[in-house]
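Researcher: I'd like a candidate sequence for this fold, 71 residues long. If you have to choose between options at a position, lean toward the conservative one.
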């Protein structure tokens, strides 16, 4: 079903460290943003979910990308 050779790397070793660094930095910025927003003393409203849900989905995808890049 899959023609991909398991011995062949998906990401070249040269680019792996840079990819992990970039994804890690973006993940840290995203987590910092959502933490800062959650610590805001202004009460949350229902319409805030329209912004929070895509941000949380993005964070989950970044975490998945970081896991995939590091293996």
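Model: Candidate sequence:
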């Amino acid at each position: 079903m899959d023609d991909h050779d398991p011995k062949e790397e998906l990401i070249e070793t040269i680019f792996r460290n840079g990819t992990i660094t970039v994804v890690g930095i973006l993940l840290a910025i995203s987590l910092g943003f959502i933490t800062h927003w959650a610590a805001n003393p202004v009460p949350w409203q229902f319409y805030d979910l329209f912004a929070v849900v895509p941000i949380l989905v993005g964070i989950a995808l970044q975490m998945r990308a970081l896991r995939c890049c590091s293996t």
